[in-house]
Write a structure and sequence with these properties.
- It is a single chain.
- By secondary structure, the protein is of the alpha/beta class.
- Helices cover 34% and strands 20% of the residues.
- It is built from 14 helices and 20 strands.
- Strands 7, 8, 9, 10, 11, 14, 15, 16 and 18 form a nine-stranded mixed sheet that branches. It has a six-stranded mixed sheet with strand order 1-6-5-2-4-3, sandwiched between helices. A three-stranded mixed sheet has the order 12-13-17.
- The chain binds ligand BES, zinc ion and manganese (II) ion (MN).
Length: 500
């Protein structure tokens, strides 16, 4: 699908569907919506007067117009209260309107820039948010559907979205904003494809191949370590998890060099391509969801893809330890003791607490590459889902400035983070009688102890951990979060790096 910005009047734009908007409570639409309403004989005003459309956030109305118009239908989307309007709402309504407009056999959609005239947003942000919301909202995972179907019997997604603006003076700013939105949304959708891919397709080797192909396309440096290199580096924690699987583990390392000789920021993502729990086998119900246990890896790879295109003056490395966690005759077992790359030993209490083990070696490796800041991203704990549900990502950090910078980036991206405490008393929960630490801290504060175990393998770098167990996938579609993988943290991490 292609997004194009063009100067023109929405009332004269040739498209299958055109999108206009309305703030809540407005009875006499103005601007582009008013002009379109006049052109179609006041149908929008009649809809409002009849009480059938109030302009509530994400409310939609579809008007089919007869012969003599360059478009077949008009979609009106509600922007909600003008006092509550912001970039996130532009993303949401752009997605909702595009999804509504795309129903039926639709090839071209035209939209105005929500909030570029009214609403008080700057034009760049409004344009970025329209592009972002539209592309995120029209995302579909239909690779394995023999008949491509957008849910209503018609194939696929529209071919073209036209963003139409009358005022020629705004066009350059709109083009620049749209470009940024496209970069962020395409990187997110790329990550979504990885997360939605089934475990038989996306093995550690395949994940590494996809990362390598993306790196080549975006001009990133790429190194992939296999089992032998990891053995040489002493990555006993990562290798321990991989032992039960017939699939070779891979450590993907991508680099973006935009900052001269400055030390890099490291983004480290959990890449468990399928998590059975290993010998501490998970219950059968819901196990299939564990195809998304590599969403952290997808997030950091997607983020560095966006970063490669946004070109901030920073050095960034993305590190993704990729393994499959399986039970077998060669699998690691409860009671085993693993030695991590740093030399620290770990008593295995539960083989299902594998994410922290692969991340232990991955963050240590990132620090050995000189990283001054390490952000890890992982579908780490069920405890985080219990604590925060599917709305907030858990954030644990040893640095207030870093935590605040990530939350600020999240506010820009429309992703929510809730910081959890990390006082040193929690560390007592994972003391071991026989090794330096154990790999679990028991049920209380499971999201916090899981995070702190990762931090045990970082020496001096400032660190933050994002637990996306609850936010990596959406159980139910809402606006631009279609059902399935959300691509969470891609946009926040890209914004975060750009803010440094
Ligand atoms: N991948 C899971 C965490 C998870 C749970 C992600 C639900 C998404 C949805 C992780 O590897 C895991 O199994 N964690 C254990 C840790 C425990 C054994 C300390 C958990 O949360 O139960
Ligand atoms: Zn896992
Ligand atoms: Mn697990």
């Amino acid at each position: 699908m292609e997004i194009r910005v063009q100067q023109g009047n929405i009332t004269q734009t040739a498209a299958d569907a055109v999108i206009v908007n309305l703030f809540e409570g407005v009875t006499q639409p103005g601007g582009a919506t008013g002009a379109l309403d006049a052109r179609i004989g006041g149908l929008i005003r009649r809809l409002i007067a009849a009480g059938e459309f109030k302009g509530r956030l994400n409310e939609t109305a579809v008007l089919h117009v007869g012969e003599g118009f360059p478009f077949r239908k008009v979609v009106v989307v509600g922007l909600g209260k003008s006092s509550e309007f912001d970039a996130e709402r532009v993303r949401q309504v752009s997605a909702t309107a595009a999804q509504t407009a795309a129903k039926g056999n639709v090839k071209t959609i035209a939209t105005i820039v929500h909030g570029a005239g009214i609403g008080g947003l700057d034009v760049f942000t409004a344009a970025q948010s329209v592009a972002e919301g539209t592309l995120l909202g029209l995302y579909r995972y239909d690779k394995y559907k023999s008949k491509k179907d957008n849910g209503d019997g018609h194939p696929g997604t529209p071919e073209q979205v036209l963003i139409v603006e009358m005022d020629g003076g705004k066009l350059d700013t709109i083009r620049a904003g749209v470009q940024r939105g496209v970069i962020l949304a395409e990187a997110t959708n790329w990550a979504r494809d990885l997360v939605n891919a089934p475990g038989n397709e996306l093995t550690p080797s395949e994940l590494a191949r996809r990362a390598e192909a993306m790196a080549r396309e975006e001009g990133l440096e790429c190194t992939i370590l296999g089992r032998e290199e990891m053995e040489r580096l002493g990555m006993g924690a990562l290798l321990g998890v991989a032992k039960g699987s017939a699939q070779e583990p891979k450590l993907v390392v991508l680099r973006y060099n935009g900052g001269g000789d400055a030390a890099p920021v490291a983004l480290v993502g959990k890449g468990v391509t399928f998590d059975t729990g290993g010998i501490s086998l998970k219950p059968r119900e819901g196990m299939a969801e564990m195809t998304s246990d590599m969403a952290g890896a997808a997030a950091v790879l997607g983020a560095i893809k966006a970063i490669a295109r946004l070109k901030p003056r920073q050095n960034v490395i993305a590190v993704a330890p990729c393994v499959e966690n399986m039970p077998s005759g060669t699998a690691y077992k409860p009671g085993d003791i693993l030695r991590a790359m740093t030399g620290k030993t770990i008593e295995i209490d539960n083989t299902d607490a594998e994410g922290r083990l692969i991340l232990a070696d991955a963050v240590a490796y990132a620090e050995s590459l000189g990283a001054h800041t390490i952000v890890d991203v992982a579908t780490l704990t069920g405890a985080c889902v219990i604590a925060l549900g599917h709305i907030y990502t858990g954030l644990v950090s040893n640095d207030d400035g870093l935590a605040e910078a990530i939350m600020a980036a999240g506010r820009k991206a429309g992703e929510r983070f809730c910081r959890l405490p990390a006082d040193p008393e929690y560390k007592e929960q994972y003391k071991s009688d026989v090794a330096d630490i154990k790999n679990t801290g028991g049920r209380p504060a499971g999201a916090i102890t899981g995070a702190l175990i990762i931090s045990e393998f970082i020496d001096k770098a400032r660190w933050a951990h994002l637990d996306i167990a609850g936010t990596a996938t959406a159980q139910k579609a809402r606006h631009y979060l279609v059902k399935g993988a959300t691509g969470v943290a891609v946009r926040t991490l890209a914004e975060f790096v750009c803010s440094l």
